[in-house]
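Input record, target 12 of the design panel.
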């Protein structure tokens, strides 16, 4: 199973910085990269999201259980405090005001800086198929333009790889099951609460996939 490649060079064995979150998408993405023999330096970005601590705890746990490299965390929480949205501020609607301007661009720039420091040519982001996208920073056009900008800014040749760009959420969940990944210990809700809210975009993607029953995170323990 090959990665979608967008950028100046093809995927090499020079290593990759995957952006990870503690959710099922980035976990499956990293498993795909592992199967393709990529040396990985997973990067978790705390951008001030409501779910940052839940995500980070899940990220460390599921990567350990999946025998994937230990992720590195960078704290940029001032971004979400200044640039408010439904995923960074509880006073806003978690679904209708979910767009956080510049979020994925920030992710890519920080991942590229980390990759540059590591001497790595590739970064990976777990965007899904475009028919499911709601925001302009989730498209193939955005990735292509970002790749050009990175290479100009760093004077280097990075490749942004998007291993899940042809996958639906249902496809990702099926792969997680195939690879025996710890789905029940991932954290994919934007609320930051112990029980998935069922209202945010991340929750609705799972519900719409028809695979909600695979996630006990939607119910209190014992319900």
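The sequence produced for target 12 reads:
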């Amino acid at each position: 199973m090959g990665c979608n490649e967008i950028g100046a060079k093809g995927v090499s064995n020079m290593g990759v910085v995957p952006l990870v979150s503690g959710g099922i998408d980035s976990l499956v993405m990293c498993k795909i990269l592992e199967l393709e023999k990529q040396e990985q330096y997973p990067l978790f970005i705390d951008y001030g999201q409501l779910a940052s601590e839940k995500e980070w705890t899940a990220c460390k746990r599921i990567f350990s259980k999946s025998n994937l490299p230990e992720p590195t965390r960078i704290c940029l929480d001032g971004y979400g405090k200044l640039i408010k949205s439904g995923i960074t501020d509880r006073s806003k609607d978690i679904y209708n005001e979910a767009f956080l301007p510049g979020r994925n661009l920030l992710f890519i720039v920080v991942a590229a800086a980390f990759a540059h420091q590591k001497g790595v040519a590739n970064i990976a982001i777990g965007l899904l198929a475009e028919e499911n996208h709601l925001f302009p920073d989730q498209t193939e056009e955005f990735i292509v333009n970002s790749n050009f900008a990175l290479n100009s800014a760093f004077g280097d040749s990075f490749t942004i790889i998007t291993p899940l760009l042809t996958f639906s959420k249902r496809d990702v969940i099926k792969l997680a099951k195939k690879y025996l990944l710890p789905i029940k210990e991932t954290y994919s809700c934007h609320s930051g609460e112990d029980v998935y809210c069922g209202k945010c975009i991340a929750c609705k993607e799972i519900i719409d996939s028809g695979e909600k029953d695979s996630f006990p995170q939607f119910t209190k323990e014992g319900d």
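Residues 12-216 form a domain with the Rossmann fold fold (CATH 3.40.50.620).
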